[in-house]
Design a protein that fits this description.
Blueprint: H1 2-11, H2 25-46, H3 62-83, H4 86-116, H5 131-138, H6 140-152, H7 160-185, H8 192-195, H9 198-227, H10 232-235
Helix pairs in contact: 2-3, 2-6, 3-4, 4-6, 4-9, 6-9, 7-9
């Protein structure tokens, strides 16, 4: 009996709702997500605009950086499903610590700013996105990554301060990157950066880092609501994905 319980612990974290990696529902979710992400990247190539020929390409946009990170996360997830490799599964979980919160941040910022004023996120020359295209870029990544976290992953093992540090590094790293692109292109990818002066941009990126950290905390809380919480006395210190280590 004890041996069987130990094997189950290795095979799946006690708070992980569904088997992953697996060739069933987990693989289906990862294939669905990758198909949506591929559709978005294909849209950028098949519908070129001035950004295609500028320095940094579409990676000037946080949306596309997040999309690339989401693609990497689900690619490792699908490889883990196909090979049943717990090591690849752990890599997927490690990537999701950043990709899931950043996609939630992108979704909140994009739809929030659009509700205030569309011109803050879309320049005058930007083509009108059909709803399916808009959702592909600005909803499906957050939705699929959240599903993956809640049902096919062990709980996050990241504390508040590391989460804030990670969020700050991403936010201010992105600021450095867009300033680098600006030196070549002489324009910012998002019109809101033209509206704000330098102190305003500092405030925006600091607020974004805080919002991403809050998104991380919200995902941790939601995971607990859906799956329960780790009994540290019984399970010891868990690390995301390591319980499936080979």
């Amino acid at each position: 009996m004890a041996s069987q319980a130990a094997q189950e612990l290795i095979q799946r974290h006690p708070l992980q709702r569904l088997d992953s990696p697996s060739r069933g529902a987990s693989a289906l979710l990862h294939i669905t997500g990758l198909a949506s992400f591929a559709y978005s990247f294909a849209y950028l190539v098949l519908n070129p605009n001035p950004i295609n020929d500028s320095y940094g390409w579409h990676f000037q946009y946080l949306t596309i950086i997040g999309l690339a990170l989401s693609t990497a996360t689900f690619a490792f997830g699908l490889l883990a499903d196909l090979t049943l490799s717990r090591r690849l599964f752990a890599v997927k979980n490690a990537l999701s610590v950043a990709s899931a919160p950043i996609e939630c941040l992108i979704t909140i910022l994009y739809w929030g700013l659009r509700a205030i004023d569309t011109s803050l996120v879309l320049p005058p020359w930007a083509p009108v996105l059909l709803l399916r295209d808009d959702l592909s870029f600005h909803f499906m990544p957050a939705f699929t990554l959240t599903l993956d976290l809640l049902f096919f992953s062990p709980p996050y093992a990241i504390a508040a301060l590391p989460a804030l540090a990670l969020s700050g590094a991403i936010a201010f790293g992105y600021w450095f990157w867009i300033e680098q692109c600006f030196t070549y292109n002489q324009f910012y990818p998002y019109p809101i950066f033209d509206v704000l002066d330098t102190p305003g941009r500092v405030g925006l990126f600091a607020a974004s880092a805080g919002l991403m950290a809050l998104a991380t905390g919200a995902l941790v809380w939601l995971y607990g609501v859906v799956n329960g919480r780790v009994d540290e006395g019984r399970l010891g210190k868990e690390r995301s994905g390591n319980v499936k280590g080979e």
